[in-house]
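User: Here's a structure from my thesis project, written as C-alpha cells. My advisor, Dr. K., wants to see whether a designed sequence matches the one we expressed. Can you design one independently, without my sequence as a hint?
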C-alpha cells in the first residue's frame, strides 16, 4: 500500500496535538495555508474526514483521533530512533521560549550562553504550543505562567516576576492628557494579545471593580501588541522585561504608575534533568539576564523606582 506524504502526516500530527493549524505552522516553520493544504490532501488520499473546524481551532473526528494516536506513536518512535543515533561529540540544548522574550531578551545573547555551555548548539524555538518533554520536543522551556507545575515529572523554577503596566506611544498620550486613574483607560483604544484576559486581570488588580466587555484588536503575541503601541495604535499591557529599553529610549511611556504583578517567567524541565550541569547553568544564566532595570519612566516623565515582588 502506498503511504501518504510524510509532510502531510507531520502536519496532521502537529495539528492534532496542538489543536490549531496556526500553531502547527509555527512549529513546522510553514504557513497555515500550507498546513491546511497538507490536511486536505491527506483526507483526500485516505477518503476520510480527519478534522473539523470548531471556533478558532480544529478538533479530530472519531476516525481522526484513532488515526492520530497511531501516527503520533510512529513519529515518537522516529524521534527516539533519531535521538539514539545522534553523535554525542557536540553538545546541544534545545530550548522552547515564548516569542516575545526570545526576540527581545535572548536572541542577541545566545552566543554568550553557547560559550558558557562549552560551545554547544542552542536551538531556540519560539512556538505557540507547549513542548511535550516525553517526546523529546525540548530539553527546557522558558514560559510565562500564573500557576507553574508543582508535582509530577516536571519541575518549574521562577526566573523573574516583572511588574506589569500599560504603555503607549508619546504621541497617543499627547492626545489624551487627562488620564489620571485606571478607569480613564476604559475609554481609550486597548490592544490585546490572544484575548482580553490580561487587560481584565490588570484592571482588577488596579482596583477597577466593574469591567465592561473590552474592545480592541487582538494580536496574539505580546511583542506584536507592544509594536502596535509604539506606532500609536492604542495602549498595550506589557511587563518590564519586554519594554524597559523602549521606555528608557522614549519610544513608549508608562501610562499610569502602578505596582501590579501578575504571572512570572519560569524555566521548566523534566524533574530528573535539573541536576544536570547544562540545566543548572541555563537557569543561573537566565536569572541574571531576566532582571528588569531598576528605573522606568512614568507618564509625567519622572523616573520611578521599580522592585521585584517578594513572592
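Assistant: Designed independently from the structure alone:
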Amino acid at each position: 500500500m502506498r503511504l501518504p506524504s510524510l509532510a502531510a502526516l507531520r502536519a496532521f500530527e502537529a495539528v492534532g496535538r496542538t489543536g490549531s493549524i496556526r500553531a502547527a505552522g509555527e512549529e513546522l516553520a510553514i504557513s497555515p495555508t500550507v498546513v491546511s493544504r497538507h490536511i486536505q490532501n491527506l483526507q483526500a488520499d485516505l477518503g476520510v474526514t480527519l478534522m473539523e473546524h470548531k471556533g478558532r481551532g480544529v478538533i479530530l473526528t472519531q476516525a481522526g483521533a484513532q488515526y492520530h494516536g497511531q501516527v503520533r506513536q510512529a513519529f515518537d518512535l522516529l524521534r527516539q530512533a533519531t535521538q539514539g543515533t545522534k553523535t554525542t561529540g557536540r553538545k546541544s540544548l534545545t530550548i522552547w521560549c515564548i516569542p516575545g522574550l526570545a526576540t527581545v531578551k535572548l536572541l542577541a545573547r545566545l552566543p554568550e550562553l553557547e560559550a558558557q555551555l562549552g560551545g554547544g548548539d542552542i536551538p531556540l524555538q519560539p512556538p505557540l504550543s507547549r513542548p511535550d518533554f516525553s517526546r523529546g520536543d525540548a530539553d527546557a522551556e522558558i514560559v510565562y505562567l500564573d500557576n507553574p507545575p508543582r508535582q509530577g515529572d516536571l519541575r518549574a523554577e521562577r526566573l523573574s516576576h516583572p511588574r506589569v503596566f500599560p504603555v503607549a506611544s508619546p504621541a497617543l498620550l499627547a492626545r489624551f492628557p487627562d488620564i489620571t486613574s485606571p478607569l480613564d483607560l476604559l475609554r481609550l483604544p486597548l490592544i490585546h494579545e490572544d484575548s482580553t484576559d490580561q487587560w481584565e486581570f490588570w484592571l482588577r488588580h488596579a482596583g477597577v471593580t466593574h469591567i465592561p466587555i473590552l474592545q480592541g484588536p487582538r494580536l496574539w503575541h505580546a511583542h506584536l501588541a507592544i509594536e502596535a503601541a509604539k506606532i500609536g495604535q492604542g495602549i498595550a499591557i506589557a511587563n518590564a522585561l519586554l519594554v524597559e529599553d523602549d521606555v528608557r529610549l522614549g519610544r513608549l511611556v508608562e501610562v499610569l504608575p502602578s505596582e501590579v504583578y501578575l504571572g512570572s517567567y519560569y524555566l521548566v524541565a523534566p524533574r530528573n534533568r535539573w541536576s544536570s550541569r547544562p540545566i543548572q547553568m541555563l537557569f543561573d544564566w537566565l536569572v541574571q539576564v531576566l532582571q528588569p532595570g531598576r528605573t522606568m519612566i512614568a507618564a509625567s516623565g519622572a523616573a520611578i523606582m521599580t522592585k521585584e515582588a517578594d513572592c
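When you compare it with your expressed construct, this may help: The two ends are 59 Å apart (CA to CA).
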